[in-house]
Amino acid sequence: MLSFWEKNSFLNYDIIIVGSGILGLSTACEIKERFPEKNILVLERGILPTGASTKNAGFLCFGSLTEILADIELKGEAQTLELVEKRWKGINYLKERLSENKIGYHPYGGYDLIDTKHSTAIRKMDGVNDLLRRIFGKDVFAVADSKIKEFGFDAGLVSHLIYSPFEAQIDTGEMMKTLIKYAQFLGVQIVNGAEVKELSGGRVSVWHSALGEQITFASDMVIICANAFMNRISQEPVVKPGRGQVLITNEIEDLKLKGIFHYDEGYYYFRNYGKRVIIGGGRNLDFKKEESYEFTYNDMIISDLKNKLDKMILPGVKYEIADKWTGIMGFTENKLPEIKVIDSNTIAALSCNGMGIALSSYIAREIAVLSN
Ligand SMILES: Cc1cc2nc3c(=O)[nH]c(=O)nc-3n(C[C@H](O)[C@H](O)[C@H](O)COP(=O)(O)OP(=O)(O)OC[C@H]3O[C@@H](n4cnc5c(N)ncnc54)[C@H](O)[C@@H]3O)c2cc1C
Q1: Could you point out which of 65, 166, 293, 307 has its C-alpha 20 to 30 Å from the C-alpha of 125?
Q2: Structural domains in the chain?
Q3: Predicted TM-score of the model (pTM)
Q4: CA 105 to ligand 1 center in whole angstroms
C-alpha cells in the first residue's frame, strides 16, 4: 500500500502524458517551456521507451521524391504540401530545442534511388520542385547520377539518384537521451515500467508490481502519446501497428556511401553510421504479417534486406550483419497526424505514420496550445 507521503507528493499532477517516445517527451517539454508552473508526469510502460522512437533509423527527412509523388496521388497536392511543411518545421524545432551537436546531426543530405519501375519520377521532379519552393525557398531535388558509381551501387539496379541537400542523419540514441535529460531538466517527472491500463476523467491506473496493487494518478488533463499501442487504451484515433525491421553491418573499411537513402517510395531506407550501414524497411512485402505489435522478425523481410545489401547497395563488398532489431510504428488510415480531443480531460495524439522524428516537435506545439 502507498504511504501517506507517496499519496501526498506523487499522485497528483496538472498533466499526465502516456508514453515517453519522442512525441510524449516533446509535448512535455513544449508545455513546460510555455507554462513552467505546470506539474507534469510522463508514464512509460517500458524500462526504456518501447515503441518506435529508440528503434528508428535516424533520418531527418520530409519525404523523398517518389514518396511525395505517391502521397500526392493518395492525398492530393494541398495535403501533401501541408504535411511536408509540418515535417520541415518539426525538424527545425527539434534542432532548436536540443541543438545539432547533442543529437549526432550530420547534414550529409538525402538520396532517392530510382529503379526502372519509378523512372517517370525523373520527369515529374521539376514540377515537385516548383511546388516545394514555397516551403524551402529553392529547389529541393536534383539528379545526381554520377554518385551511383561513387557510392558503389549496382548501376543495373539503380537507374538514377535524386539528391536533396535538406535531409540529414542523426544518432537516434543520443537524440532520445538528450530529450529525456532536457525534459527532466525542465522538471518533468518520468516514471518507467508504468503501463497505463485504464484511464478516465483525468485519472490513470497503473499496476504497481512491487506492491501487487493498482495505483491511480490524477490530473486535470491526460495526453495519450502511445502511438501504435493507442487503441489498447483509447478507441480514438484508430491506429494500426506497422513493424519495421532494421539491420546494421560491421564497420566497412572503404565504405563509399554517405548520407540517408530512400528506395521504393520510402518503403526501404538505408544510411551510413560512420563506417557501418543501417538498412530497414520492406514492410510492403508482407503488409498483413507486419501489422504486428510483436518485436519479432519476419525471415522473408530480413533476407530481402540482406539481398538488397548484397546486390544493390554493397555489391562485391565483404561485410557482416552485426546486429538487428525491430520497432513498431503507428499508422492512421489517411497517413496524416492526428490530435483528437476525446473529452474535457483527455487528448490522444499521433504524429508519426513513419516520420515522427520530423513531425513530433511540430505536433507537440499544437498539443501544447490545446492542453491549456
Ligand atoms: C524501424 C523504424 C525506422 C524508422 N525510421 C524513421 C526515421 O528514420 N525517421 C523518422 O522520422 N521516423 C522514423 N520512424 C518512425 C518514428 O520512429 C516514429 O514516427 C516516432 O518515433 C513516433 O514517436 P511516438 O512518440 O509517437 O511513438 P513511440 O516512440 O512508439 O512512443 C510511444 C510510447 O508509448 C509507450 N506506451 C504505449 N502504451 C503505453 C501504455 N499503455 N502505458 C504507458 N506507456 C505506453 C510505448 O512504450 C512507447 O515508448 C521509424 C520507425 C521504425 C519502427
Answers
A1: 307
A2: 4-54+174-238+334-371 (3.50.50.60), 240-331 (3.30.9.10)
A3: 0.97
A4: 20
